[in-house]
Give the backbone structure.
Amino acid sequence: MTPRHLVVGPGALGRMLAHALADRYPVKLVARRALPERQTLTTPEGRTLTRQLPIVRLEQLTPAQAPAFIHLTTKAYAADDAADALAERLGPGIPLVLWQNGFAVQPRLSERWPGPVLCASTTEGAYALDDASMVHAGRGESAVGGLDGRHAETAQMLVDDLNRAGMTADAVDDIDTRLWRKLAVNAAINPLVALNNVPNGALEDARFHRELDAAIAETAAILAALGVAPPEGAGVDGWHRLVNRVIQATAGNRASMLQDLDAGRPTERNAILGPLIEQARQHRLPCPQLEALNARLASWEAAQRQER
Ligand code: KPL
């Protein structure tokens, strides 16, 4: 059967999306390796649901299986290669939905993908237990839109599907601002907790304040130069409040970057710190703290590669 939604990248978010959409629409999950089709999800309320999710390999896709939407839920560093392979297999014109962190893949693929590109920013919480089971840890909200407010009708069609599937989603005309805001939070929290091997809540400890404050101040200055409005009030205080709120709300979490280091995967530093450092250079703004975090993560990753 031709799927309406093709979900590429069977990590926790991809499988959560596939589980939700499969209740209402034909869905296929695309994976690079064989995975069990019998997939289990534990809901935020603790119920266990098991479904058959059709899983295909990317190499098996043909234009006959072209869906209404492709959801790309890979890590940011794997998104470009996956998108190239999808365009080659499925042909042009299919809306691509980018669920990645950061602000690197989004402008690049919005230029390169042969069709409309939507970006999604979500606060859904999910983690994988193994190849066949995952936990939907907390319900969140998703915002969807094209960069610069493009593709509003397509975004509305997608959020209608997501809402019918039980998620909470909105079509927005300011996804650029939302992606930068999420990136700002990730840039403040993720590298520090990953490099120190601590849960998010540890950043409330005074020993982290100097580095946390420096990362927030540098990020605030860069985003001000880009014209990204600070959240919750003017200036750097708005960014502090937002970051502190997320630290408190996710105090027990091991952030995604820490999970990446634990699993021996590369981190998403190029998608999160990379765009900030690049913009700082373009606007001639100093960002020594962000550069130091990036360099420390790079050497950690290099050491991990050598161990393998
Ligand atoms: O989004 C996150 C992540 O882990 O990537 C935060 C907000 C840091 C929560 O853990």
User: Anything to note?
Assistant: The mean pLDDT is 95. The domain at 176-307 is CATH 1.10.1040.10 (N-(1-d-carboxylethyl)-l-norvaline Dehydrogenase; domain 2).
